[in-house]
Amino acid sequence: MEKHNHNLNIHYSSPDYIWDKLAELYSGMPGWSGFIDGITYWYAQDNDKRRINASVEPSGLQFYAEMQQEEWDEWFELFKNKGSATLGFEIGEPEDGFEFHIYG
Questions:
Q1: Less Cβ crowding at N or C end of the chain, within 10 Å?
Q2: Distance between CA atoms of residues 89 and 35, nearest Å
Q3: Residue 20 above 90 pLDDT?
Q4: How far apart are CA 75 and CA 70, in angstroms?
Q5: At 56, is the secondary structure helix, strand, or coil?
Q6: Which tens digits make up the pLDDT trace of 40-66?
């Protein structure tokens, strides 16, 4: 297992309707486990050694994962693609030049 830490350009101050859309996206992703103590989890059940969780941070939507590199790359790319389609703006890592979509 490898550890992965990545941020996406989804700002913590996004309006509720954005978080509602993300909640729907979360549940449609492979390995969805649900919200545990308010934090989203995937693959966190039945003694699965893999895990992904996401939290809202000032740096953006932050993901932490423990899984093989190839599987993580596929999962994360799927999330970014589905997120872009769902939210209506391109989702990516700020470190790669993706800007935050600020509302208001």
A1: C
A2: 25
A3: yes
A4: 9
A5: strand
A6: 999 987 778 899 999 999 999 999 999
Amino acid at 46: D
Q: What's the pLDDT at 104?
A: 62
Closest CA to 58 of 104, 13, 5: 13
Residue given tokens 């978080």 in the structure block:
19
24 and 86 Cβ atoms separated by less than 8 Å:
yes
Amino acid of residue 53: N
CATH number of 2-96: 3.30.310
Domain extent listing, the chain: 2-96
pTM of the model: 0.93
